[in-house]
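Hi Y.,

Following your request, here is the sequence exactly as I used it, all 439 residues.
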Amino acid sequence: MKNKPAFKEALLFWIKLGFISFGGPAGQISLMHQYLVEKKKWISNSRFLHAMNYCMLLPGPEAQQLATYSGWLLHGTRGGLLAGIFFILPSIFMLLLLSIAYVLFGHIPWFQALFEGLKPAVIAIVIAALLKIGKKALKSSLHLVIAFLSFACIFFLNIPFPLIILGTLALAIVLHFVAPAWLGTDQVKDEAEVEVEEEAAYYINSSHTDAAYRFKPGRFLRISLLALLCWLLPFGLYVICFSDPAFWRELSLFFTKAAFVTFGGAYAVLPYVAQVSVEKFHWLTASQMMDGLALGETTPGPLIMVLAFVGFMGGHGHFGGSLLAGTAGLLLTVYFTFLPCFFFVLAGAPLAESTRTQERFKHVLPLLGAAVSGVMGNLAVYLGRTVLLPPGHTPGTVNIFNLCWVLISLLLLIRYKMNMILLIGMSALAGILHFWLFQ
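Below is the corresponding structure, written out as tokens. Let me know if you'd prefer a different format.
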């Protein structure tokens, strides 16, 4: 069995991950799988997928929660906290700098060109991630059917992601009692026997247990009370430290609510956030909301970080163009958006671990992974349509540069296993070069 990684070694990895986590949830999960499972062999594939399936059920950014869960598995609460914090820390500072540049300098052509080069690479990263995740999650005909139905429900019928997950759970429970053979019970057992030797090569494997993984009501209560205190504390500080405390209370309550309804990733909650922040609060315009989405898509970290841009614009506009108020709005938005994420994982992970050895959950959770694969397919189509058929082009025409760069990026990623940071750098340069040649 592989030895436990040193805390310093894991910390350096989490810091690195925060800077290279491009590609949205599919790309980020694939990146974590590549390092944690394939390269470093810290966590086995079965444990990684179990953690992923649990995080997919939670509101909030699943990739950030999966990083928190993985850090908790490796080094307990402090490991989970640092993994989750460093997953978003680089994007916080990048988005803050970009938000300040946005309000100070407006639309800079070469700056936009850099982002235009990044967008096709992001599509390629998502597609490559889908292929890798799908290969792991879609193990039977039933899994393929579930993935297809999941894609069809969200793409054609606009069925919300939570309903898709609940429907998949209901189907899995019914099949467990009515037609267990459809769930591949025997296949799961056979695969488990085959993977025994493979599991032994990992530090966190199917047989790894730890007293810290057991659910303890006292620990759950302590974390719940601490989370509640952390949520209440800023409201007291508003009266002492801020002018117009009513605005900051409104901002805090709004993004707390947004955090609890963020099922299915950022695209599921962005319409709600856009509607309220633009039409009700008037923190920014619809055009500025789209610009914020572009910034969120081209920075590392979860796409839900686009909410930080909304918070920045809210503070900046409400206080007469104050950069300090904008910065406070951004930081408070991040705080109230991600505080529930840490609570859900650090309080709930022991409960999730208690289901790992129960046979019914072993058969049900893979179906959730298949459903999530279908939803990820919808994300790839959504992003691909935006990048390949951007607004302003003649209907039916394709952006040739973006299409070519998607294909080149896919070739570099899949065939030549190019480092993602190198690909991102090349893509940014390609975007600037394309702008200079064809402006």
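Residues 188-194 have pLDDT under 50 and may be disordered.

Thanks again,
Q.
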